[in-house]
Amino acid sequence: MDRITIAVEDDIGVAVRKAAAEQGQSVSAWMAEAAAARLRNHFLGQFLDEYEAEYGAFTEEEMAEARALFRRKPGRWKDEPTP
User: Fold this and answer.
1) Alpha-carbon gap, residue 74 to 64, rounded angstroms
2) pLDDT tens across 19-31, in order?
């Protein structure tokens, strides 16, 4: 396992500790999940940029469908959209 030391502003540190405690996680586990989510977003953004460069911009219909998917509750991607 790779060990990384970071420094954050005091208010960020307080908020991270609180969020981790509320979720029953260590600060390390919470930060690892946050970093993994940020990396997924980064690589998704790169992929979408490459896709649009090759195939053209997404249509408004495609964007509306994507927005509808993102409005679903987390963890429910296979279920019906929530109202």
Assistant:
1) 18
2) 999 999 999 999 9
Look up tokens 């420094």; give the residue: 7
CA dist 63 and 69 (Å) reads 10
pLDDT category at 66 given cuts 50, 70, 90 is confident
**40 to each of 33, 43, 45, 46, 65, how far by Cα in Å?**
11, 5, 8, 10, 20
> In the chain, what's the furthest Cα-to-Cα distance?
45
For residues 40 and 48, what is the distance between their CA atoms, to the nearest angstrom? 12
pTM over 0.85: no
The identity of residue 82, as a single letter, is: T
H helix runs in the chain, sequence order: 10-22, 27-55, 60-70
Cα separation, 50 vs 40, whole angstroms: 15
